[in-house]
Each structure stands twice: as structure tokens, then as C-alpha cells.
Design brief:
Blueprint (H helix, E strand, L loop, with lengths): L10 H13 L8 E9 L1 H12 L7 E5 L19 E10 H11 L3 H16 L7 H17 L8
Parallel strand pairs: 1-3
Antiparallel strand pairs: 2-3
Helix pairs in contact: 1-4, 3-4, 4-5
Amino acid sequence: MASSRRGVPHARSLNRWAQAACAHHAPRGEGQLALTIRVVGAAESRRLNRTWRSKDKPTNVLSFPAAPLAPGDKGVPSRFFAKDFAELGDLAICAPVVAREAREQGKPAQAHWAHMVVHGVLHLLGFDHENDRDASVMEAREVKILALLGYDNPYA
């Protein structure tokens, strides 16, 4: 993905952040993982969020795991069994929401973009924050990955 959209990080940055999230949490030795990052506007984010989550408002990041490439085997996501290439899924990141949140939270826009990519990739890898325990686990992973990338704790 290449973007000349004002305020949207370069594709190299998006790729580096996604790779950092995958490097510490994806199975090793099963080939290359791939994902698509689509930068969307508020209207498209709202439409996707309404369709897939029944929430009628735009949101910062939506994660769409890829369909399995082959039937699952004992609970291990089958998408990891591809020989050379496996599609992890898609992220839809809403540029206006990310920009607004960064301003409201007093965070550098680049740091908030990095957080949204890492957060979305962790969702694709099976992490969630539906309860306090799972949220603690996911947030700790986000903080660790972001620190390795040189960014402050987004929850502090």
C-alpha cells in the first residue's frame, strides 16, 4: 500500500509495525505471513463497523482475519500451514479517527498509527480484549512491541 494521503504514514512504516507485531507472536517456520492494510475515511469505517460489528460509528481500526486456506487441524489456524505464503487478514484503519484520537490524547500521530497497526495485527493473531484478563494480556503485548519500536506506552 502506498499513500500520499496527508497524515498517513508511509507504507514502509506500516509494514515495519506490522512485522514487529508478527515477529513476536506468529508461528515460526511456516512460511511468510501477509496482510492487507487499507486506509479508509470515516464513511467507509462507519459502514464496515455497522455491517460487521453492528456499531453505527467510525472506529480507529477493524481487523478481518483471513479465511482458512485448508481445514483446521486441532485448533491451530490452518492459514499457518501454507508452504510459502499465508494470508493473515486485513486491517481497515480510519485516518480521520486515528488523527482525532492522537490529538485528543496528546500523542504523536506516528505513535498512535503504530499502536493501531500493532493492535489490529494482534487481533488477527487471535488476541482480544473482551474481558479484563484478555485485555491485560493484549495490552501488555502491545506495550512491549511498541517499546521495541521506540514508542511510549499508549495506555500510560
